[in-house]
Amino acid sequence: MTDLLNHSKPTAAGRYTIGIVVVAVWLTACDGNVVEPAPPAVASVVVTPNGTSLSGVGASHTFTGQARDTAGNAIPSAVVVWSSLNPNVATVDATTGEATAVSSGQVTIAAHVDGVVGYTLVTVSVPGMAKVSSWSFDRPPAYSLSGVWGTSSSDVYAVGEGGTILHYDGVGWDAMVSGTTDELADVWGTSSNDVYAVGGNGTILHYDGTSWTPMTSGTAEWLNDVWGTSSSDVYAVGESAILHYDGTSWVAMASGMSDLLRGVWGTSSNDIYVVGRNGAILHYEGTSWTPMTSGTSEPLYEVWGESSSSVYAVGGNGTILHYNGTNWTAMVSGTTAALLAVWGTSSSDVYAVGGSGTVLHHDGTSWTTMASGTTAYLSGVFGAPTGEVYAVGIFGMILRFDGTAWSTMLGDTGKDLWGVWGTSSTDVYAVGIRGHILHYDGTGWSAMSGTSETLEGVWGSAASDVFAVARSGAIVHYDGVEWAEMTSGVTCRLAAVWGAAPNHVYASGCAGTMLHYDGTGWSDGSVLQSYLAGLWGTSSSNVYAASGNGFFQYDGTSWSMDNLVSSGSAVWGTSASDVYVVGFTGTIQHYDGTSWSTMRTGTGRDYYEWGIWGTSSSDVYAVGDTGTILHYDGNTWSLMTSGTTADLHGVWGAPSGDVYVVGRHGVILRGTR
């Protein structure tokens, strides 16, 4: 009080006024030392700006970070420590906050204060990079296989989608040049230099031990099966057709049936059986085809026998019929799975394969289920004289039975891939149908487990913070150790995911669904009744969404629609004034920060483009149907040679310069410069 009185002043009336002096309150400890008051707790860190674009290696920008308390007031004494979530794209000075471009891509920059983190996004473009000079297969397309046959365990043939013919020489499976892209349904032969394959559009191919050549079938009907007694007595069956080859030409036979025919087998040229839809069974005694009573209306897919008094037919809903030379009778299969193929060595050693990886074995008394080790759809089975049995199926699956157990020769690598993203050339992720997640570590691609959902989009802020979205509305997250499902709150299709930071992630999809992840949970902020197929942005307050009905932009507060943009499936850019949208009918649209313009591809092709990515405005890649890869050099778009006809769905490039493209049948292309 003495100090306060010393500051008092007399007034004209002789009174005193007391001046109050505001001073900092210091606490004195018991030992007499003065203790400064604790600073306010940090509630948030705000980084300015919240996004920027850099052009060229070495380009830089200095960010500022401000710590704030719970009331939003700045804490001047707070010390900010900076870090880059992906130094492969841009580094940042830990003290000054200066970010420096290293390679093309996007990277989140983090500002740390007392355990609280704020984020900003850097988009780096690198003009002048050389165009990809060639595309090669990291993983070739693995088409679904439907038929298998061979002469020995070192001479086996498998056929399937896309004109696929594989040959096994006892060491490995190799692709053969078929000369067709039509689907092949079955294969059979008399020897290693007399092999026949049949399939779509009346396709019949013949292999003479050197090459496959097309034969004139005289029909455009789909052919499902082929079998014969010799090179001058071969039969092929299809939609309603039965064709016969006499060693010179194929001639249609009168079947008297309009039902779809699926399988053919016989003991001789005057004892042949054909099966098909609605339980149809025909028998040929050397003169004409006559219907038999099967006793079922289930579709029958395949037929095989040991003799004219022991024939087996398999079909839908686990159907197995047996013919004893007089009547067809139903057998107890023990399964409801569709059975698509049957083969055996005798009546006490018969195999049937079908849906969900089903493999059955008949020992002469009963059918039992074998452990196949897969849930893949199996559509063909055949055994070599030496005892090995082979089964083929969907997504390129090939199994072998060695007399003791079934093992995988070729996995189901043909699962369609829809999205690709990574942090570097040694950390790339590809996602696709039925929970297919692949990871590339710089040496090879390996499968990861975590979900059974069909995944369409993948993105991450770092190698330990990766998100993938699914058609079912599911979202899975990878923390660097394992994938785990998150609670999305929706059940409709999600097609895209993108983020500016670990706490600013967006997922979009059907019916205008737009989800936002704040680092804790997902919230729904649907935009409009429009399918949102593509996402990209330059910051958490500048996000773009491509849709079937237009283009949407988020400014940090709300979404607005731009009707000047036609339907799009993917969006990408180098900055807010250089944005590209691809979609239907080969259309590519560009935004320069002011207005949209339509770009001409100059290819004269009408196709669907699924993905777009680039290193700069003079090095952009768009991918789409039938193996389409387009390149933009800053002036014109040109068509590149991809080496595949598989539909391509996603594209992403590593900081090292390699570009990865994924698509149907599990194809992965790598572009090198």
Defining traits:
about 675 residues, mainly beta, Immunoglobulin-like, Methylamine Dehydrogenase, Chain H, 4 domains, 4-stranded mixed beta sheet, 4-stranded antiparallel beta sheet, 1 helix, disordered N terminus
Can you describe this structure?
The chain has 673 residues and is an all-beta fold. 1% of the residues lie in helices and 53% in strands. The protein contains 1 helix and 69 strands. A 4-stranded mixed sheet has the order 6-13-12-9, with no helix packed on it. Strands 14-69-68-67 form a 4-stranded antiparallel sheet, with no helix packed on it. A 4-stranded antiparallel sheet has the order 15-16-17-18, with no helix packed on it. The radius of gyration is 34 Å and the shape is elongated. The N and C termini lie far apart (82 Å).
Give the CATH architecture of the largest domain. Answer: 7 Propeller
Overall mean pLDDT score? Answer: 92
CATH topology of the largest domain: Methylamine Dehydrogenase, Chain H
Strand order of the largest sheet: 6-13-12-9
**Count of discrete structural domains:** 4
Report the CATH C-level class of the largest domain: Mainly Beta
User: Strand tally, please?
Assistant: 69
Q: Please give the largest β-sheet.
A: 4 strands, mixed
